[in-house]
Amino acid sequence: MPVVRTKNYVFWPDGDPMVGYDRNGVAYIATSYADSETGSIGFVGVQKSQDGMHWSQPAAVLSVPETVPVEGWLTVDTNVGSPYLNSLYVTAVMIGPPGVQSENQVVVSHSHDGGRTWSRAQAEPIQTYPANEGFTSMAVGKDGTAYLTWQHCVGTGPAAGCKNGRGYMVLSKSSDGGVTWSHPTLMTAIMIAPSPCNCYAGLLPNTNDVRVYNYPAIGVDNSSGPYAGNLYVVMYTWTGTYMQVQVIRSTDGGSTWSKPVPVASASDAHDQFFPWLSVSSTGLVGVSWLDRRNDPANIDYQAFAAISADGGQSFQPNVQLTTAFSNPNVNGYPFNEWMGDYTGNTWNGPDFVAAWMDSSNGIDMQDVVGGIRLR
Question: Could you say which of 1.25.40.10, 3.30.365.10, 2.160.20.80, 2.120.10.10 is the CATH number of the domain covering 75-372?
Fold first, then answer.
């Protein structure tokens, strides 16, 4: 990502890499930019390419005056029957004002013309600390409905700022191409792994205070199968002794949600973290995550995956994606407290493909790709 210069600021890429493709084969990449002087003002910038070799200059597609974006997401509507086919959606939590950062808000920008023009909409009113938002994720249904999820910390009472460890996964949706968004509704409550500050992001046990962000990754069944239209969301919750990855589902467009279903067997009582989820063109639900089950000391992890063929009601036996162990404390970061949060997965026809952070080289974190061949 290149540097962006304006009259008053120089903006540097600041993280949260995002990627998407439309039905015309156009690739889009995005990231958050922050001013190089203070890091307290910024925007989400998007570039596009027809061939993967030549890229447009970054365009500031999501910005709110006197704020900086964090924990964003980019998605593209690739559903052939959608009235908003090839539309782009970019979301982020906008935090400000500079020097105070006492307010935050989930905001979405959309484009219906291949990224030439963009319009911004609010997914919620401005939140004032200790109310807190984080970790946005998006997916689009085949009718063009856009679904947006994130973690919410309330602003009052014992759970204010998630300081009692309780967070809330919420959903907003748009049926008009991102022009308006529904009032956020509760999907499920989760517990956050303990940390010294009791903040909105928990810490991975037995580490140098490695943070574990909790993106409620959402997927939609856009198949014509028996579970068509189902929504699925994966996340972790703290059981009191370990992090447990779980999936919830909705059969009515997000109005109601099932009880959480663990993806691992009950015998797996070691930490499971950084999950992601996607749905195949035939309605299979795939989940990947990092898991410590094979380390008696509950430190090193491996990548695992599981598939559901019954609409998220149960998951098939877990598949181990890597034999090598990774130590979360060996991450190449100056104080070893940040291993990244760049897990993800997708489907390539019948094959489930996952990506995750891997430090099995003993030096730093590398992006590694693996998966399950179901042919």
Answer: 2.120.10.10
